[in-house]
């Protein structure tokens, strides 16, 4: 946790699909981290009486990938298997499903590196029914619901410095130092992390780190455009507004949610994210549709950036691609994708840079912007 590679691993794991009048796209990238600790689950249509329900979740593991991987496989069944969820009390069922899986994993030594050190995972998930969206958050992964390109709802990250979280930590005999639980863990709620859950006179949700999710119910509206679930590797460098405006604008260019999810991840990498990055975009019937005008404008923008990049390289002695980025940034180009800016067009600049320099120099010259 915290170690980085010499250069990022940029290959992506993708997934996508449709069902129940929803479309979804997934992108996940290891990035600069030495290990990929994220996991996800995405399914439109759950069967067993829940054919018109869908479930999506992002898991951001820490101190290893085992807990996030296990939860990605089993959290859904842990929730829908509760009598509360089956009887229609969905909020209580979601809460109990989280607490049940956390209890069960405690007795699974294969998920821990040692008896005194067990990793954990944050979780953000959503059940989408025909009339409601149930969102649960445990940790600092985040869900954002967008209408008309604007965030209308977002979960709050569970950080140790929040007054309610800090009070629980202190009541359990812990402390918050350098914004971390006991100076170590950056999140105050998570599944796993059993070395932070051993205070004997405190209940399951009163420990230094709590497995209890915050659960929200949003009534679906015709103006709902899309829901974003993502780990903090995304939110570290893009705000809720950035992500919503960027996706909103790209949906006018393409209806390929996997492609758009990949663009978000790439943009975050070039904006300086050093973490694993995973995002699920779920679009509703009210999402923007591609238009010829938007697509034509985007093509013109790409050609303008390519032209400027070539001119800058021909008239300047650049050593690194970040120098070229700075030069183009100073041009104040109009019409760049909102929320993404020039970083979302990095691939064009990189391509031109490689074309205009000898192949043997590319590895030396081609470094990531802001790295």
From TrEMBL:
It is a lipid-anchor. Residues 23-284 form the PPM-type phosphatase domain. Pfam families: PP2C, PP2C_C. Its cofactor is Mn(2+); Mg(2+). InterPro entries: PP2C (IPR015655), PP2C_BS (IPR000222), PP2C_C (IPR012911), PP2C_C_sf (IPR036580), PPM-type-like_dom_sf (IPR036457), PPM-type_phosphatase-like_dom (IPR001932). It is found in: Cytoplasm, Cytosol; Membrane. Belongs to the PP2C family. PANTHER family: PROTEIN PHOSPHATASE (PTHR47992). This is PPM-type phosphatase domain-containing protein. It comes from Stomoxys calcitrans.
